[in-house]
Specification:
By secondary structure, this protein is α+β, with helices and mostly antiparallel strands. Helices cover 35% and strands 22% of the residues.
Length: 413
Amino acid sequence: MSTITIHRPEELSLPLRRSWHRAMDESPDYANPFLAPEFAAGIGRHRGGARVAVLHEGEEAVGFLPYERNALGVGRAIGLGLSDAQALVHRPGVTWDTRELLRACGLSVFEFDHLVEEQKPFGAYVTGTFASPAIDLKDGDDAGYAEWLRGAYPGLAKTTLKKERRLARDLGEMRFVFDERDPAALRTLMRWKSAQYRRTGRMDRFARPWIVELVEQLFQVREEHFTGVLSVVYAGDRPVAAHFGPRSRTVFAPWFTAYDPDLQYYSPGLIMHLRMAEAAGRDGVRLMDLGRGDKEWKDWLKTRELRVGEGFAVRPHPVATAHRLWRRPVRGLRNTVLAHPRLREPADRLLKTVGTLRTTGRMGSGTSTGTGTGSGPAPRRNTGGQRGANAQGNSTPQRNASAQGNAAPRRER
């Protein structure tokens, strides 16, 4: 097996970061920005247990596994719960013995939930695989957004363009900025998202200072393999919807999306995603990875599905046994709820009731809930027969309502 060295991700040398970038470039499986050293370094600045195992063949660094480790030797993929792609990023042909890797990392167990499908040495430890919807993007042309939309999504074009025209009449001329650099717009997005979390009974990620600081720092990163992109839809001078997420040269990863809840009638979430897809294609992005999660708006927009795995890589150790006995039933329950609409919808209704109580001050601020069912209620299947007619996203599902799309990545984002 290769020689393995352990490093803090934010302290990797420039040659090691370049070798990591080279491994990303040599395989499309690793082009996702969540697999870049810049994301690992961002997590490392806020998480004391963040590390990177570097695999060496001779003098050459050929593989990189970012992870987090606690004092008991329990490990997990770096940014677990925030990252929508996890892997040991490596050069073609590199392989490893998983138990020896864990031993070198000082881990008894390594937990993951968005492992890219290519990771064969981890295959024996995968307990389930799941769809991660994606959109294949093409070079844009000079025809404009409306023409692109009619060609790419004819079933959505008429309704969406009508809502955009109505929004312009009511509030002012529509304007979309794919790469907005105003920090005030980022603060608006986080404020909207916090309110959405509270309304829907989910854990408010932006109540955690380290996540706020992480997003603010990643917003400043402007590198080839990782750029923090803030996109905003404006009507006149008023922001309507906003999104922040990372992109590499060829892959864009939607992450945090929210909109002004007073304007939900106009389907701002769906408008945001369609505008981002068109602009990203024009800017050279070839894949928009929507992330694992059963959302109807993803079904409408996707062109294909990637596969990601979850599971626990382990080596014989009492801590590993205890961790699996504790975590596996929790995951199984969550996945059962996610896979069955009859269970998912009541769970989401319960969370929304809790969110309402929190928002109105009728429940103590210390109350904690969460089923891991996503960041918004599960949308109902479209009964109207027209593709894209009623995607709900994070608003309350209603029959024949207009497309919303909350775009919150899986795991309560």
